[in-house]
Amino acid sequence: MLDFNDAREPLDGLSADAQVLRAALLDRLEAVLHYLFPRGRIRGGKFYVGDVEGSPGKSLVVELDGPRRGLWKDFSNDDGGDVLDIWAMSRGLSTLHDFPAVLNEVRQWLGFAPPVSHLARREARHEPGVDDLGPHTAKWDYVTPAGELVACVYRYDPPTGKEYRPWDVRARMWRAPDPRPLYNLQQVASARTVVLVEGEKCADALIGLGVVATTAMNGAKAPIDKTDWTPLKAKEVLIWPDRDAPGWDYAEHAAGACAMAAAASVAILVPPPDKRSKWDAADGVAEGFDCAGFIAQAERRIVKAPAPRLPSFTLGQLLDDDSPLPDDLIAPRVLTPGGLTVFGGAPKVGKSDLLLALLTHMAAGLSFLGMTPPRPLRVFYLQAEVQYHYLRERAKQVRLPAHGLELARINFIATPQLRLVLDDAGLKQIIPAMLDAFDGHPPDIIVIDPIRNVFDGGDAGGENDNGAMMFFLSQRVDPIRQAVNPDAGVILAHHTRKLNKKQFEEDPFQALAGASSLRGFYTTGVMLDRPNELSTIRRLTFELRNGPAISQKSVDKIDGEWRELDANNRLVLKDYGERLDAERRRKRDAILEILFDQAAQGRCYTANQFAEAFEGKAGLGGDRTIRARISALATQGYIKFFRDAAQYGLPAVGRNKFGYLCVEDMVLSLPFDAPDPATGEVLIRHFTVLPTHFKCPHSGAAMPVERADVWVYQDDINDKEAPL
Questions:
Q1: Where residue 45 sits, what CATH number does that domain have?
Q2: Half-sphere exposure of 493 (CA within 13 A, CB side)
Q3: What residues make up the domain containing 240?
Q4: Average pLDDT value over all residues in the chain
Q5: Using one digit for the tens of pLDDT, what is the confidence trace for 465-523?
Q6: Burial class (CB in 10 A: 0-12, 13-18, 19+), 329
Q7: 317 in a structural domain
Q8: Are residues 595 and 663 in the same domain?
Q9: Rounded to 10 degrees, what is the CA torsion of 617, 619, 623, 628?
Q10: Are 286 and 433 within one domain?
Q11: In a domain, 142, yes or no
């Protein structure tokens, strides 16, 4: 039997290794470029991106075809090179100074084993299985059906964690053969039924029980297109995945490959729901689990039936089936068991605020804007946009009755602002968190807010690409649900792209990035928009895959609560208008009082300084809202301005268009430069502040005042349209 320790030494050393890695990168060039530059685009046989940092644009061009494949140039600075150079520069490295580090990073990404040093090879001749990682702890042989050794996989357990290295016997190189063989082919060749698992350890565990088992080299990390699946032709293939999202993802891809290889049938076994995350076949054997019974009777997802049969029902069967429909998670049909709802809206429209209110009501078992849960629901809110402190602030603003609040406190779980991508690594982190969130009970609703911040489109591109969006939905979102709770409803918050008003009115859902894939995948679409930018009233629009249509809703946040407005009910509108007027008066009085009191304490503000200083305070709202209120009050004459700051010992306002804010009878109190030498008392000077300018209600320009002591208020000017 030929072992890697019998191999001759490579002639070219590191350069040979670099050539192998460069060739491997070129084989997967498009995938490499999408990995390095998610914002890049392919057009006409070339890949375009803004720069080596991955900015949007077209300055950097990579050749994809012909003898120049992999060569690139940045036309903004004349940088260029080959695929190894662009990998290095995208990582802030240099092939001139950091070449070994670059090769190691590429090697890890490709899944290649590190090359063995010359010293290790010399030692290996005297001590088999020893290389730069120390002695191997396990070894698996890959043979042909005739018994010829073609590859070995070695496991090492250094302090840094387990590593696997494949050895190509025929090429006598540290690499996986091309194509990669399946494991245990001698038994597979004569078997009718084959169980496909992740990893040689799992395969050996089942083989020890008399089960014909196989695996692809590298398990879940095995490149599907690099593996030879043809030995499974005409076989009944059962796939036993690890109980996690990457395991299910691999199972689905492998199932497709088996079907393409003309397997007689293909099915994925569903791991028992009571098993821990990452539980696999080896764990089952070790704990005495009934593996044979599981293989024979377990719930399974049929990928390719033994005898193709299209499910069909006669009209009579459909008419006679009176079994109840499953309860909506959020009625009416807003979110169904196993359904997907996409909640879209432009930035700053209030989408996350409304979504938080909806979710907390669902967790409390309470209706919200006509949307009703059948019971208190367990909600896991994966959010990647709002920092912890501001999420906490928003949560405290939600209005719930006492009995509902007690339920929501335990049924609603949110993450702080996560900075991760829902790729394989991200799924490994998120799925266990969801499984453990509710003391072993699965969540009823899984929420991801927003898609953009966690998006992984595979090799297809960004969120605007329909193929990339389909990859994200089918290979990222759905595996999370399958691993956590197949009956859970999923809500995805999604930003919209700009459309002209006519296009949006005709079909608001085409504004969703990746809209074609989303609309083909989701069961419900919900869109929040503001028809009139000068009004705080929003519009909720629904698109249902099943069930009767839901009418548009006009909603607004009044006194801290989201409420539905009835545009046809004058009493409701009158009451609503009165509430808005009252809120405007309250904010007006609060702003004027703050300006007056702050001046008495020696502090004056420009409009921007005031908005920044009092954002989120005294019920004034955000920075933008405060500035809009100040602008309206200035137009009405409640606020004027003074530019003679030096007269009062204040710093100049620089390029500010208007100057410091001023209100009627405002007195600025400032200490003298030095305390009284006799008493040590700090003496205060009081200045009556008079305005020098006002805001013209017609042009909006700053105009000099004629009489600084005269104040005229015009409440009916430019207020009702200004946002609260």
A1: 3.90.580.10
A2: 27
A3: 179-304
A4: 85
A5: 888 888 999 999 999 999 999 999 999 999 888 878 888 888 888 888 776 778 888 99
A6: buried
A7: no
A8: yes
A9: -140
A10: no
A11: no
Number of helices (H), then strands (E), in the chain: 22, 30
Q: Which of 345, 203, 196 is nearest to 258 (CA)?
A: 196
Task: Examine residue 134 and state whether it is found in any structural domain, yes or no.
Answer: no
Domain boundary pick from 548, 565, 582: 565
| 291 and 353 both lie in a single domain | no
Number of domains in the chain: 4
- Does residue 412 share a domain with residue 550? yes
- Sign of dihedral through CA atoms 711, 717, 720, 721? negative
Residue partners of 332: CB distance under 8 A and separation at least 6? 372, 547, 548, 550
123 part of a folded domain: no
Please check whether residue 97 is in contact with residue 91, taking contact to mean a CB–CB distance below 8 angstroms.
Answer: no
pLDDT tens, residue by residue, 159-210: 888 888 888 888 888 888 989 999 999 999 989 999 999 999 999 999 999 9
Tokens for 540? 């909720």
**Is 541 found in the same domain as 614?**
no
Burial code (b: 16+ CB inside 10 Å, e: under 16) for 548-576 equals: eebeebbbbbbeeebeebeeeeeeeeeeb
Q: Do 553 and 596 have their domain in common?
A: no
CATH of the domain at 541: 3.40.50.300
In this structure, what token pair is assigned to residue 118?
Answer: 């010359």
**Cβ-based neighbours of 618, under 8 Å, separated by 6 or more:** 590, 594
Please give the single-letter amino acid code of residue 424: D
Query: In sequence order, which residues have a C-beta less than 8 Å from that of residue 681 and are 6 or more positions away?
Result: 675
Interatomic CA distance for residues 572 and 567, integer angstroms: 8
- Could you read off the pLDDT of 99-129 as tens digits, one per residue? 888 888 888 777 665 565 443 443 333 334 4
Do residues 387 and 513 both lie within one domain?
A: yes
Q: Do residues 521 and 539 share a domain?
A: yes
Residue 377 burial (C-beta neighbours within 10 Å; 0-12, 13-18, 19+): buried
Burial class of residue 267 (count of CB atoms within 10 Å of its CB; 0-12, 13-18, 19+): buried
pLDDT in tens, 519-566: 888 999 999 999 887 788 999 999 998 888 898 999 998 888 899 987
Contact criterion met (CB below 8 Å) for 258 and 229? yes
Tell me which amino acid residue 242 is: D
